[in-house]
Amino acid sequence: MSEGPYALRKRMAKFLLPVLILTVAMNVTKFFEIYIVYSPVPDSATNATRPELRVSEFRMNPTYSIFFNWFRFITIGIIPFCLLVYFNTQVGCVDVSPLGFPLVCSFFKSLFYWGKRDSVGNGVRKIRDTCYHYVCKLALGFAQFVCG
User: Of 117, 83, 89, 115, which Cα lies nearest the Cα of 103?
Assistant: First the structure.
């Protein structure tokens, strides 16, 4: 592989720079939420001051607080959750289950089909199959609802 001496740096930059830029862009407003006030120290023989942090008007603005909290909830909570659900359903999908619908994730299969199938009685097997059926349907419906 003669890609040059800086090939690793270029590949690293390709992945790290977007993350760094998004991180700074999402947190740049935090620097405007507080400010430093230097107040004199009482009963001081010298002319000493101490720094105090104060909340700015920008942080106290209800519109900013609502917008910023929803923005962080969507970008840090909803979007990653939807991506996890979508990609996990894509990894574990198989053709068709015995119950007639696509299986959502191999995790559910391993959760409900532990051990040998013949070691469990018919009543327990029916309950287990029914639970498996409904959990897979619920997860599939949720994934389709959330991720389109």
Answer: 89
pLDDT on residue 126: 59
Structure tokens at 143: 């994934």
Instruction: Say what the pTM is.
Output: 0.49
Alpha-carbon torsion 26, 27, 28, 32, what sign? positive
> What residue ranges in the chain does DSSP mark as E strands?
34-40, 49-55
Report domain extents, the chain: 1-60, 81-148
Collapsed DSSP state (helix, strand, coil) of residue 123: helix
Determine the Cα–Cα distance for residues 148 and 146; give it in Å rounded to an integer.
6
Tokens 């405007």 -> residue: 32
